[in-house]
Design a protein that fits this description.
Chains A, C: GO terms for molecular function: CoA-transferase activity. Chains A, C: Belongs to the 3-oxoacid CoA-transferase subunit B family. The complex is a heterotetramer, with two copies of chain A and two copies of chain B. By secondary structure, chain A is an alpha/beta fold. Helix content of chain A is 17%, strand content 26%. Chain A is globular, with a radius of gyration of 18 Å. Chain A starts with 10 loop residues before the first helix and ends with a strand. By secondary structure, chain B is of the alpha/beta class. Chain B has one domain: Glutaconate Coenzyme A-transferase. Helices cover 22% and strands 27% of the residues of chain B. Chain B has six helices and ten strands. Chain B has a seven-stranded parallel β-sheet with strand order 4-3-2-1-8-9-10, with helices on both faces. In chain B, helix 5 packs across helix 6. The longest helix of chain B has 13 residues. Chain B starts with 8 loop residues before the first helix and ends with a strand. The chains are: A alpha/beta, B alpha/beta. At the A-D interface, helix 3 and helix 4 of A face helix 4, helix 5 and helix 6 of D.
Chain lengths: 217, 222, 217, 222
């Protein structure tokens, strides 16, 4: 298999690519890591309402250092702001938003996504006896749609888009779309369908870095 | 720009289909979305399932909707009251179906629908006519009934203040079923006394966050 | 059986007798009818917090005609007031207070109370196909304690304290205490125990007006 | 006169028994009842089950309580974080039991306890390690897990304003688990920034009504 020359997306580019697909008016929860960066790339004139598990709806960007409010953090425990139109709720109401299907979108990172939409993102092995799940299972099972943004392969080069997850599951058949540094892929009844690829990357290159069989969208 | 305020009643009522389940807020006449009920009468959807605490009073509002033969089934806790003449006529004539639900179970079933809980156990109603045929289980020695979530296709609610994101506050006992129904429906339509500029409602005081609200119709109290 | 001369309690006296047993600090829901009158007989200096199903906690008496607030009613649809320290909640939270066992007391009227604590107070026959249950089943099953206040017999003289309820049940084994115009009775493992009787009434007179066997407390 | 304010920490901590289940509010350091946790350390109850979102940080507060060997079991959603050194030591040594619960299920289980719901179904966790051994059922084609109410003997919560009836308001994201835990415990103890005269809190703005609160300890923010 011949290798063409291509440029994988940076973390910021991946976040930008996700942001591009979020229309005005959506209620969105962003996981920790690359997903958190997504908010920075939604154009200011496009109103998207960000939700945080700890009861913040209408979350804005990090505060200016002088304006930091110790009473206002996001689920990643970072200081944030509240936009005009925002509201505070308690944890059960906050997760009612998640679990009741009121969020249009949740964007999470993952260790693995399987071709049937299974996601593994909370425990790196069944032997890890004290993994931290947080709100990941609620978000994955509850949001109207779940997108994953992650590197296409591990640091060691192992595929993260797999036929079947090896790591403990976060939720079954939950993922709708995956954004990686190499491609955008939809999860369909027939497995992963490639929507978009990094410039210069060929379909065969992408398949070579993917465990699950791919098809063109 | 997100703007959930609608220009007129026609826009508020758009897409309410025949056969829809409609949750109607209010307790007594307080916090009842009168204008929206009139709008629904005008709009014409039929074969409706209505969920409300009562089965209408007099010959206006909900009672009028029933009298017009538009309600196939009513789910409520208190069907028979001093003024429920229309309901009683229809019910005796076999022209309307009735499901009686204990008031707390009614509220909790809608809250469950809004919170993604498809079913829950409760001691309320165990051993009574209203629990007949329902699965039961015992928890800590207390026998319980399994109750299912009660989602709506549409919720008609009344609120005090709103903003263009659909955040709502209520007035005193006008709160009642309104916030619960707002959570429980696919389309939530709010009739409000005032629409305030975004950022005016204190984020600590918002009772129904805009995520639960789809349309806001300004209808100042006369 | 000889009949002694006695004075049955009036509705107000029954309400006064119930009020006498409510200590300061209790959270109390009062049903429609005689129960509603109970609030009038709690001394002003004794703070009792009254709850109404429609989301009012800390309910006060009826307003002066000039002060009537159409937005503030109780579960009986009567205009009421809110005391300092009161709060408004929505219906699910209001019934969480009831069903979660947070009310110290609920006082209801009834058609029948059985010696095992069963209560029937919502439907006068199984053939009544559209009876109105309201919050009665929630209150009867949920409050920490349920007291019933009612006439000792029906207008026709039939006993309302019975061995077994004939009317459709509101809740099983729920009633702790019954206040009638003739007596106060505890529901015990051994059935009704007479705590108090109307002046001049004998135990035998009371038993004669009661279906279930009585014992002295 | 109802007066839920207590004079000192000793009165606040009265009657917390060995073996108690203690719900501890807060998310991160925001809305955490630090003073009450220190009070519990001082008070001496042991063999505790602690329910909190995290398993403590550093060697103070909850981590200190664990380090002292007073916590038999912790129920949380996010045990392992940057600062959870004490928990990890104890856990590796087999000296503390752990139950991991998805964060929303954790909140809902406590809300259920407060609302008299002994058990409910949820899709969250279905097909994962955290649902192993739990009863399942399908609703509208969605497989679900049965989860049980999680009541506390004691809740330690942090709030902003209070009055002598125990009504509470919160500060921004300091709300988090606090109102839910306040509903779910037999004894709820609130550490508050301010105690206001009765009638000062707007009845529309009270987040936790006093019915859910037993003791109020004034502990102004430093």
């Amino acid at each position: 298999m011949s290798e063409t020359s291509f440029t994988p997306l940076s973390r910021k580019d991946m976040a930008r690519r996700v942001a591009q697909d979020i229309p005005e008016g959506w209620y969105v929860n962003l996981g920790i890591g690359i997903p958190t960066l997504v908010a920075d790339f939604v154009p200011a004139e496009r109103e998207v309402v960000f939700h945080s598990e700890n009861g913040v709806l209408g979350m804005g960007p990090a505060p200016a250092p002088d304006d930091a409010d110790p009473w206002l953090i996001n689920a990643g425990k970072q200081q944030v702001t509240l936009l005009r139109g925002g509201a505070y709720v308690h944890h059960a109401d906050s997760f009612a938003m998640i679990r009741g299907g009121h969020l249009d979108l949740c964007v999470l990172g993952a260790f693995e996504v399987a071709e049937n939409g299974d996601i593994a993102n909370w425990a790196t092995s069944a032997n890890d006896t004290a993994p931290a799940v947080g709100g990941a299972m609620d978000l994955a099972a509850g949001a109207k749609r779940l997108w994953v943004v992650m590197e296409h392969t591990t640091k060691e080069g192992h595929p993260k888009l797999v036929r079947r997850c090896g790591y403990p599951l976060t939720a079954m058949r939950a993922v709708r779309r995956v954004y990686t540094n190499l491609a955008v892929l939809d999860v369909t009844e027939q497995g992963f369908a490639v929507v978009d690829m990094a410039p210069g990357l060929s379909f065969d290159d992408l398949q070579a870095r993917t465990d699950a069989p791919l098809r063109k969208a | 720009m997100i703007n959930k305020t609608v220009r007129d009643m026609a826009e508020a009522m758009q897409g309410i289909a025949d056969g829809a389940t409609v949750l109607v807020g209010g307790f007594g006449s307080v916090g009842q979305p009168d204008a929206l009920i009139d709008g629904l009468i005008e709009q014409g959807a039929k074969d409706l399932t209505v969920v409300a605490n009562n089965a209408g009073n007099g010959r206006v509002g909900l009672a009028r909707l029933m009298e017009l033969g538009r309600v196939r089934r009513i789910i409520c806790s208190f069907p028979r009251s001093a003024g429920s003449v229309v309901f009683e006529e229809l019910y005796k004539a076999g022209k309307i179906e009735l499901e009686i639900v204990p008031q707390g179970t009614l509220a909790e079933r809608m809250r469950a629908a809004g919170a993604g809980v498809p079913a829950f156990y409760t001691p309320t109603g165990y051993g009574t006519l209203l629990a007949e045929g329902k699965p039961t289980a015992e928890f800590n020695g207390k026998p319980c009934v399994l109750e299912h979530a009660l989602p709506g296709d549409v919720a008609l609610v009344q609120a005090h203040k709103a903003d263009r994101w659909g955040n709502l506050t209520y007035r005193r006992s006008g709160r009642n079923f309104n916030p619960v129904m707002a959570m429980a429906a696919a389309i939530t339509i709010a009739q409000v006394d005032m629409v305030e500029p975004l950022g005016t409602l204190d984020p600590e005081e918002v009772v129904t966050p805009g995520i639960f609200v789809d349309r806001v119709l300004l209808h100042p109290v006369a």
